[in-house]
Design a protein that fits this description.
By secondary structure, this protein is an alpha+beta fold. It has four helices and 18 strands. Strands 11, 12, 14, 15 and 16 form a five-stranded antiparallel β-sheet that branches. It folds into four domains: 103 residues, no CATH class; 56 residues, no CATH class; 84 residues, Immunoglobulins (Immunoglobulin-like, Sandwich); 35 residues, no CATH class. About 3% of the residues have low confidence.
Length: 299
C-alpha cells in the first residue's frame, strides 16, 4: 500500500498527476486504473484525504523488488503552482514485513548528498543555455557560487552552489532616453536577467562609451543629470555577472538641447539671443525714439 500527502494546484481536467508502479522500471501500470489521475486544486493544503491518501499496489505482491513513481502530465497552456508530494510511505499490511514510513528517511551530508543537487542545477542551467559545452557548464557552476570561508581548502572552489547566479545573462531591452531638459536625460529599460550582479550605464558623446554609473541588480531606470548640453548622446546598458560575463543592450540616442545663454540688456531688461525675435524690442525702440523726439521739440 502506498501512502502519501499531496498539495495540488493544476489546471482542472487538463493537467494530471498519475501514480504508477512497475516491476522492472520499463513497463508502468496506473495504480488507480487506466488514464485515471488527480487534477485540480487542494486549495493550498497538503492533504492526505480525497486528493492524498493511498494507492493499492496489490499488483506488486510477491515481487522481490518494485518501483513507484508520481508522473505529472501537462499541456503547458498556463502556469500554476503545480504538485507537492510529501510523507510518502509504502506499507505491507497483514504480513510480518515492517512498514516503510517517514521515519525511514534521514538527513545526510557529504559528496553523495551534494552530487544530486549539483546535477540538478547543471540540468537547469543547461536547459536554459543549451549551447554550453560540458566544460563551460562546469566552469559556470564553479565560478558563480557563494564564497564560504568554512569551505576554503575543503572543496576545489571553496564555494556553495548558487543556481541563480549560474543562469544565462540576458541583455536589457527596450532602452529609451527621454530628454527632460538641457540638464537631464531620463533612461529606462527592461531587466531580463536573474543572474546579473550590477548594471553599467554607459554614455557616448562622440568620444567613445564611458561608464557614468554602476547600478544594483534589478535596476531599470536612471537619470543622467551631467551630460554635456547641445550634444548628440548615445546610451547603452551593460549587465554584469559574478563570473565576469557581460552583455550590452542595444543603443539609444538623445539630442540634449543647448543651455540658454543669458546676456545683460539695456534699461534693466535681460535679452536672450538664443530665443530669436523678442516681441518687446520694437516697443523699447519706439519709446526711445519718442523720448528723443520730445527732447528735440523742447529744445
Amino acid at each position: 500500500m502506498l501512502n502519501y500527502a499531496l498539495n495540488l494546484d493544476t489546471e482542472y481536467r487538463v493537467d494530471f498527476v498519475f501514480i504508477e508502479h512497475s516491476s522492472d522500471g520499463v513497463t508502468w501500470t496506473n495504480a488507480f486504473g487506466p488514464s485515471i489521475g488527480l487534477s485540480g486544486s487542494t486549495g493550498g493544503w497538503l492533504l492526505s484525504g480525497a486528493f492524498g491518501g493511498n494507492a493499492n499496489l496489490g499488483d506488486l505482491n510477491g515481487l522481490a523488488t518494485a518501483q513507484v513513481r508520481f508522473r505529472f502530465e501537462t499541456d503547458l497552456s498556463i502556469t500554476l503552482d503545480g504538485v507537492h508530494v510529501d510523507d510518502v510511505a509504502i506499507t505491507v499490511p497483514n504480513t510480518t514485513i515492517g512498514a516503510h514510513s517517514v521515519n525511514d528517511y534521514v538527513f545526510l551530508n557529504g559528496t553523495s548528498m551534494a552530487t544530486p543537487h549539483v546535477a540538478g542545477v547543471a540540468a537547469l542551467v543547461w536547459s536554459a543555455d543549451p549551447g554550453l559545452t560540458s566544460l563551460q557548464l562546469k566552469t559556470r557552476l564553479m565560478n558563480n557560487g557563494d564564497p564560504i570561508a568554512a569551505l576554503v581548502g575543503k572543496t576545489v572552489s571553496g564555494k556553495r552552489l548558487n543556481a541563480q547566479m549560474a543562469m544565462p545573462l540576458h541583455a536589457a531591452t527596450a532602452l529609451t532616453a527621454a530628454v527632460v531638459s538641457f540638464s537631464q536625460v531620463d533612461l529606462s529599460w527592461v531587466d531580463n536577467s536573474v543572474s546579473e550582479t550590477s548594471y553599467l550605464v554607459q554614455r557616448d558623446s562622440c568620444a567613445g562609451f564611458t561608464t557614468i554609473a554602476t547600478l544594483a541588480a534589478d535596476s531599470s531606470a536612471y537619470s543622467d543629470a551631467a551630460a554635456p548640453a547641445g550634444t548628440n548622446l548615445v546610451y547603452q546598458i551593460v549587465a554584469q555577472a559574478r563570473d565576469g560575463r557581460a552583455t550590452a543592450s542595444a543603443t539609444t540616442n538623445a539630442m540634449k538641447p543647448a543651455a540658454p545663454v543669458v546676456v545683460a540688456g539695456g534699461g534693466g531688461c535681460m535679452l536672450n539671443p538664443q530665443t530669436g525675435f523678442d516681441p518687446m524690442l520694437p516697443t523699447l525702440l519706439l519709446i526711445a525714439f519718442s523720448i528723443l523726439y520730445l527732447r528735440r521739440r523742447k529744445a
